[in-house]
Amino acid sequence: MPDSVLSLVILLPLLGSALIGLTGFMMPGFRKQEKLIGTIGTFAVAIPFFIYLSVYLNFSHTGAVDFTIIDWMVAGNLDIKFSYRIDELSLLMGMIVTGVGSLIHMYSIGYMHGDRSFYKYFAYLNLFIFAMSNLIVGDNIVVLFLGWEGVGVCSYLLIGFWYEDMSKAMAAQKAFIANRIGDFAMLVAMFIIFAELGTEVTGLTFQEILAHNFSESQTFWITLLVFIAATGKSAQIPLYVWLPDAMAGPTPVSALIHAATMVTSGIYLIVRLGGLFLMSPTVSMIIVVVAAATALLAALMAIAQNDIKGVLAYSTVSQLGFMFMALGAGAYTTAIFHVMTHAFFKACLFLGSGSVIHAMEHTHAVKDPQDIRTMGGLSKYMPHTSRTFWISTLAISGIPLFSGFFSKDEILASLFFTEAGFGVYQVVWFVAVITAFLTAFYMTRVTYLTFNGKERFDAHHHPPHESPALMTIPLYALATLAIVGGLVGIPYVVGHGQYHQLNKWLTEAHVVHVDEGTTGHEGHDHSSHEGHDHSSHEGHDHADHGEHHDEGHGAHYAHGDHGGGLIVTKHSIHENATPTKEWILMLLSTVIAILSVMMARNLYRKHDLAGDEKVKGIFGGLYPVMQNKFYVDELYDKVIINPFVWAGKHIVLAFDQKVVDGLVNGSATFVKNTGEMFRKLQTGVVQNYVWITSVGVLIIMTYLIFG
Amino acid sequence: MEPTAFSYLVVSILMFAIGTMGVLTRRNGIVVFMCVELMLNAVNLSLVTFSKMHDSPDGAMMVFFVMCVAAAEAVVGLAIVIALFRNKQNIEINNFNIFKW
């Protein structure tokens, strides 16, 4: 496939954005053409999806494909180009982003109907896809960072889309600032990398980074800083606070950015740099502990939420915590698996909630169309939304054979069987199990209270109605994926992992290494061979890890010597995993999921909204804390934000007003005073002038005669 | 004491000095002009003296030029003085200070 077609994957969304944005800006007549704008926007994302698809279908012939668009920074030892590489990981991510993205574009045509800034919305959304594509397909860390920043900007633009409402604008600002803090950490990590690699000409490509032997402290710092950056983007403690506020944006934005794509970029980055993370068990442990705390905390907050989007927001934070737990355990392919399944069911949930919110607004009967306490019984009016929402709820709860079950179970298993870490990983496993229970509970709660039970609002005057096909088709598409999406990851116990298509796909990556001169053909043979040895090999390495992690060898993660394979292969199931234990774990997950769903359903079926009282009873004094989100925002306000504002006002502002302005005004005053002093010389009387002239002549003459 | 060439120079210097002081201190415009003429005459005298001292006609020739310029200048200057008088009815130079700051 020629490079020009491949580069469309990056350029088409940008072109779509520019076309819609500029035309809409300059021609007011264009802004009403919703169908046209929507079509351009959707195709700008759908065509890249089909390009990815054809790359996928040809993958066994071509292996990973790279293409370069243009040089970027060529100066000194930097040789950075806009270069991209579609390998297994970026192909998968790309298909998720453009696939789910085009469904959401389609949904938005219906959702944003009538909005006066319709064209701006699609321009921003396309711009976001452009930035995200740069992030995932970029071959070097600078292009990734361009995308990284770009998605942050687009997130800001889209959250604050209805910026006339001050609270929405503030939410956008909060998101951007929290992101920015993470970006700073990312920059420092990039600087460390460049300081190491920049002694020679470097393009800062991932291949170079992964092939280089960083020192132990460098590895530690780079991975730690990258993780901090990821906490900003992917909403973990301490930088998750923007995500719940981000629900101020239009619901499809929440679906796309804050469920399926942007928030997964932190996870993508860590998987991309997996080789470094494998060599840093300290940071991996930090990751897993922080992730567990985040997941549990967010789940607790979600139980006490009454805003339908709020529950989903905290649920996202919690599920991201799961993905990071997998990363901390070294199970990179598992994390990507959960990214994929989460994209499907979470996007479906968000789009479904958008459908519900539209319907509730239409009734003109409730004060807050997003409050579940004034919903109930909506399945009668909105069968499609109800069905798909329930399917996605079952998926996220981990009910067997839905997609969430497979990915979540794999994460739990990878935590349980990790050997290093003095039992920390097993404690985290336990926390994760509890969180999974809570997840199923609060999701069932919110779904039941929304769609089932009796109606808690006046449905007679303007009954709620189902959304148009443009909105329900994506719902069904995503729900279908939420059902079958897990089947690419059949667990290892079934047939020794040969049915785990996803893992096979991702782990073949570093074997087909185009630069090394291995042909695709050779690579293939290699992979089946390696796949076999893999578990024993990795198990051994992993045990080593606990004791001596100081070699900084490439050999630890690549199958030895492929010069920095792009995907790290780490099976989530290690040597000590026996089939019996695995089946027991799977049974445990199933039981917990089903138990939780049944408990929630029965509780709320019996007591309706009053079921919340029972929940409050169980948590007792903790419940108000949960409802107030553990006062984290207030804590940040008091400890961080207020001091900064105080310092800003009293130190920086004072400095600016007194010193800087003082200098500027002072120099003007000085000139003025000097001028006033000297102008008194001009008396206007000629005689005085003659006086001065003659004195001057005298002086010169004296000098000439005597000097 | 016999008057030598030097004495003429002394006279010239004295005349010049008196003229300068006059220009710098007198308040009446016409008197200032007279002092300017006095300075010019002093210079003429010194030029003639030097011409005699060095036996060369150069100095004397310059005197002619100086006198011509002095005459023209007197004409113009007095015309200005008359115009000023028409304005203020006196020639007190301290009064003409429009260019004051």
Descriptive report:
The complex is a heterodimer of chains A (707) and B (101). Chain A has helices at residues 3-26, 34-57, 59-62, 88-111, 118-137, 141-159, 166-197, 206-211, 216-233, 242-245, 251-260, 265-272, 274-278, 281-303, 308-328, 332-363, 383-397, 403-416, 424-451, 469-484, 501-507, 520-547, 579-607, 611-619, 622-627, 632-679, 686-706; strands at 65-75, 78-86. With 707 residues, chain A is mainly α. Among the domains of chain A are: 504-556, no CATH class; 635-706, no CATH class. In chain A, strands 1-2 form a two-stranded antiparallel sheet. In chain A, strand 1 and strand 2 form a beta hairpin. With 101 residues, chain B is an all-alpha fold. Chain B has one domain (5-89): Helix Hairpins, CATH 1.10.287. Helices cover 76% and strands 0% of the residues of chain B. Chain B is built from 3 helices and no strands. The longest helix of chain B has 31 residues, at 58-88. The chains are: A mainly alpha (707), B mainly alpha (101). The A-B interface holds A 679-687, 690-691, 694 and B 20, 23-25, 32, 93-94, 96-101.
Order of SSEs of chain A? HHHEEHHHHHHHHHHHHHHHHHHHHHHHH
N-to-C SSE series of chain B?
HHH
Topology, number of strands of chain A = 2
CATH-defined topology of chain B = Helix Hairpins
How many individual helices of chain A?
Answer: 27
Question: Which term fits the overall shape of chain B?
Answer: elongated
CATH architecture label of chain B:
Orthogonal Bundle
CATH class category label of chain B: Mainly Alpha
Question: What about the largest sheet of chain B?
Answer: none
Percentage of β-strand residues of chain A: under 5%
Mean pLDDT of chain A: 85
Class derived from helix and strand content of chain B: mainly alpha
Amount of helix of chain B: over 70%
Q: Unreliable segments of chain A (pLDDT under 50, ≥5 consecutive)? A: 510-566
Whole-number count of domains of chain B? 1
Largest interface: A-B, 12 and 13 residues
* Assembly state: heterodimer
N- and C-termini, Cα separation of chain A:
89 Å
Strand percentage of chain B lies at: under 5%
**Helix tally of chain B?**
3
State mean pLDDT of chain B (0 to 100 scale): 93
